[in-house]
Amino acid sequence: MKKVAGVALGLAAVIATTLALRSGRGPSGTPAATSASASSNVALAYPPKGTGYVYAFRFRQTTAVDGLSGTPAMNAATNVEGKLALADVTRPGASTTLAASIAEITTASLRFMGRETLPQEPGLVGATVLVDLDAQGAVTAFRFPRSGSVTSKLLLRSLALELVPRLGGSGPLWSANEETPSGSSTTFYATTGDPLRFERIRRGYLRLGALGDRPIDETRLSVVSHGAVALAADGALVRVDDEEKLRVVPAGPAAAETATTELEAHFELVSRSGAPPGLDGSAFERWSADKVPAVAESDADRLARMAGDLKMEDIEAGVGRAEQGPPRTGFVAESAAYLRLHPEACEALVKGVDGEGHGDRPARSGVDSARSMVADLLASAGTPEAQKALRSLATSSAVRESPRLERQILQRFVFVGAPDAASIAFLEARRQAARSAHDEDAELACATTLGATARKLGIQGRRDEAERITSSLQRDLEAAKSPDRQRALLGALGNAAAVAQVKTITSYAKAKDPKTRAVAAHALRAMDSADARDALRTLAADEDTEVARAALGSLAQQPTSAADVRAIADLAVQGASAGLGNDLVTFFSAHLDAPGDVGRALDAIEARTSGDAALSARIESLREQLAMRAAVAGRR
After folding, report:
1. Do residues 234 and 335 share a domain?
2. Cα distance between residue 317 and residue 565, in whole Å
3. Could you tell me if residue 558 is inside a domain?
4. Cα 444 to Cα 482: distance, rounded to the nearest angstrom
5. Which of 72, 238, 401, 484 has the fewest C-beta atoms under 10 angstroms from its C-beta?
């Protein structure tokens, strides 16, 4: 059995916590709001039993993980709106327990790998959770009825973590390590001058669920966060707003995934009412706050769930409509799952487009569109049978008669997750044959694909095979005469992400042709090397805007040092190429631990782009985060 924890990603649901400020009184007392000044403690109190609260909510979260060459490894999107009922159901002598249940759903969408999953689940209305909290208001555990669906439990867990503020610090600023829907975060809280309103900003993450809960190197993590918590005069929580965007890039070619998560949550108190009857949670299923129980699922079960009720005739019909435009969302993921479950269907799919016509559309353009879609489906499936069928398609006479189509299908091998020996040998042989026939387009298409393949081989530990490919690409690059051929082979070598090739690639950083310099900058993006970063700093100062932009983008994917940040800040102050304001702000957003350099750079950027409202807003956001960090440092 294979455990699949990823289904929890991007899921959310509804719970809100009624909070109050107190001064030296227990949670059962009537709450009264007090100012959170430097001399007073801010602590939690919950409303007395007998009061229920209803919150209107909106929760949206998207999570995407890209694998090698930008191919999607996982994506999920949640959009839930409705109302939540909440009440304190603490038993005498026990720690605080809140009960929340979904009272109404107006919008509910949860897409995983392009497939809508909520319609397959029991109704969410009525789903209930008990949330246990400690004296500081931190969630310690969730308790669910055993009969509830896994999806509803994951939904409820996510927003319980999102919506429990840690109002337990002293002074105008405090911090806490918190579990969130995205992982384990260091969160800062600050007063705003209004005793009933607090800012909440997540500075960074120690662990990110979108990468399988692996530890995170914060030098590779970009976090942009804005949040606020508002209380009523009697201390009840009346509003929570949170917006967050985080991105983590891989640490060199050994880490194949880049993850991006965006979250938006809004909760508003709409009514108060009598509390529901107490719940006996003694027999409930218990989940700890910091761990999502893995969902045991075999590969076959997982693929069957993704494929749903798709049939071979549905796939053939979708292929037949390829000329009409992109397929419906989820079609490729569902079809790939079907082909993995039914490997014999791969060759049958190729035979269906092997003739001059397909369905009732014999026109050449329609046939080519169908063949391109079949190549997409086979590459996404990626099994040995799918790869064999993809090779068969690429060598068919109908495809070889269309050079453009052949190039497209050869490059589909880039998206095969684990290319087998037969596919590698096929690409190398086709590249050699194209060179002998002076078919440069097909030769370079194979080179581009082989570069990405070499990177995958290196990750899989097949280093000898990877080095054989990169050495061949290097020889071809050094022998190339025309700028077009040089750029194509530079890109192919960059796809390999081989640090041993840094010297070769950086030798093109001084090329007269700016397009070649830009490609060289992009080719260094995944090469974790001091020499690569030195070259990128130089290219970031290039007089050509596209070269400088490519260099900044690649440098942002490197483990940059204080010297790197200082050098880019100097460029910003000295007047980097026009049009780079957003690129520079993106770079500095990941380097707020260098406040002096970032601050002076932001001042210079804003002075040159005062008419750009969107850019000014981004700059102001970074300044707020710098101020928060400075305040925290001053308290230590």
Report:
1. no
2. 53
3. no
4. 13
5. 401
Are residues 216 and 117 located together in one domain of the fold? yes
Q: Which of 214, 238, 268, 264 is nearest to 57 (CA)?
A: 268
Based on DSSP, count helices (H) and strands (E) in the chain, helices before strands: 21, 18
Last residue of a domain, one of 411, 428, 447: 411
Which helix (H) or strand (E) element contains residue 224? strand 221-231
Q: 219 and 267 share a domain?
A: yes
Instruction: Check residue 362 and give its pLDDT.
Output: 41
**471-526 confidence digits (pLDDT tens):** 999 999 999 999 999 999 999 999 999 999 999 999 999 999 999 999 999 999 98
Compute the Cα dihedral for 137, 139, 141, 145 and give only its sign: positive
Total domains in the fold of the chain: 2
Give dist(CA 288, CA 113) in Å, integer: 27
CATH of the domain at 128: 2.30.230
Closest to 184 (Cα-Cα) out of 165, 208, 160, 167: 208
Q: Which of 45, 49, 52, 57 is nearest to 21 (CA)?
A: 45
Domain hosting 374: range is 306-411
Among 240, 261, 295, give the residue marking a domain's end: 295
Residues 101 and 230 in one domain: yes
Residues 353 and 245 grouped into a single domain = no
Give the closest residue to 62 by CA, choosing from 73, 74, 77, 80: 77
In contact, 284 and 68? CB cutoff 8 Å: no
Answer yes or no: do 64 and 206 share one domain. Answer: yes
Judgement on whether residues 68 and 105 belong to the same structural domain of the protein = yes
pLDDT in tens, 52-68: 788 999 999 988 876 54
CA distance 96 to 27: 8
Query: Closest Cα to residue 221, out of 178, 174, 173, 182?
Result: 182
The pair of three-digit structure tokens given for residue 210, joined into one six-digit string: 């979108």
Q: What is the pLDDT of residues 114-166, one digit of tens each?
A: 667 766 555 788 888 988 887 767 788 999 988 877 888 888 888 778 777 77
Q: How far apart are CA 464 and CA 135, in angstroms?
A: 57
Helix axes 331-341, 364-381, angle to 10 degrees: 60
> Where do the H-state alpha helices sit in 227-351?
299-307, 312-320, 331-341, 344-351
